[in-house]
Amino acid sequence: MRERIYLDHAATTPVHPRVVEAMHPFLTEVYGNPSSVHGFGREARQALEGARDTIARFLDADPQTLVFTSGGTEADNMAIIGGAMAQRERGRHVITSSIEHHAVLHACEHLEQLGFEVTYLPADKTGMISTDELKKAVRPDTILVSIMYGNNEVGTIQPIEEMGSYLREREIVFHTDAVQAVGVLPISVSKLPVDMLSVSAHKINGPKGVGALFLGRKVPFTPYLHGGSQERKRRAGTENLASIIGFAEAARIAQEEMEERVAKYRQMRTTMLQCWQQEGISFEVNGHPEKHLPHILNVSFPGVHTETMLMNLDLEGVAAASGSACTSGSLELSHVLEAMCLDDPVAQSAIRFSFGITNTVEEAERAARKVAQIVHRLKR
């Protein structure tokens, strides 16, 4: 049987066996609606709030500041649209970056259709957003800024603390999409100067279809889902209890294993880069050389087109990606690489390898050898 190596954990991760085990009773036995007042409902409510407490500890947050969502996309949309609409009488200027996930970019485009003005900050060749550029963009009518914590395509970690401190002094609401950073970086919303922060379960070996938004107590916010008074009237709809339980278990495991996981991912990255050096193939690493997420390695092999490399890797049983899973089916150049103004041969040959708990260092080396073989074969 052909070996299969999954190196696309930034797109999604396999559900941890302990997470499946934790969820099972809430799919079969504990089926009450958390909003019901009878015993079945109270049992579900107790489990829901217990899960909220666990995820709050993971993020060092007050449990009451967490709003459960259907995932990172909804959390981003809630933060940007809900945060902007609540302040539209105060101003209509929003700032984001040109390398955000489409959940942020498309939400900002929606705001533009509603009459808001959006400034898209540029990135440098390492994928870094400049705090000085942010400061220049701030205006008296700026009401909201959204900058991602760590980029999902090249892994660059942004100066969130520096940006947040500046914005807090000016009382401008600050949101960060931490979907890729959570689980590989310790995150404390009680220390970080952020007002809203998005996370998703399926990036940390939890189930798909559940996430959360940290929403600071004093942050202006207008809900855009209407129907019930769930989540303290901030997000209507019956909570996805089984998935929330799974999210909490995934968060618990990620917290326990973070140090060990990160050490392995760094070793895998080093192993792949050393392999390519030994094989004598031409490659360039994209993203910041030091400030990058440990599980994401974006690298270009000039002369070998991205789609050609991905197809050949797939035939060899190796799963990698060209960028965000939301756009990887498209043949268009990644908007992140385009915003970084990389040379065409580099941008058009970029591959994202992303590591996870099921991988081994030996797998990383075998995958790297396969990449080298493909490059040598195609160059011949």
UniProtKB/TrEMBL annotation:
| InterPro entries noted in UniProt | Aminotrans_V_dom, Aminotrans_V_PyrdxlP_BS, Cysteine_dSase, PyrdxlP-dep_Trfase, PyrdxlP-dep_Trfase_major, PyrdxlP-dep_Trfase_small
Q: Where is the Aminotransferase class V domain?
A: 5-366
Database matches in Gene3D superfamilies: 1.10.260.50, Aspartate Aminotransferase, domain 1 (3.90.1150.10), Type I PLP-dependent aspartate aminotransferase-like (Major domain) (3.40.640.10)
Q: What is its EC number?
A: 2.8.1.7
The lineage's top-level taxon is Bacteria
Identify the PANTHER family for this entry. CYSTEINE DESULFURASE, CYSTEINE DESULFURYLASE FAMILY MEMBER
Q: Say which family it is in.
A: Belongs to the class-V pyridoxal-phosphate-dependent aminotransferase family. NifS/IscS subfamily.
> What's the protein called, per UniProt?
cysteine desulfurase
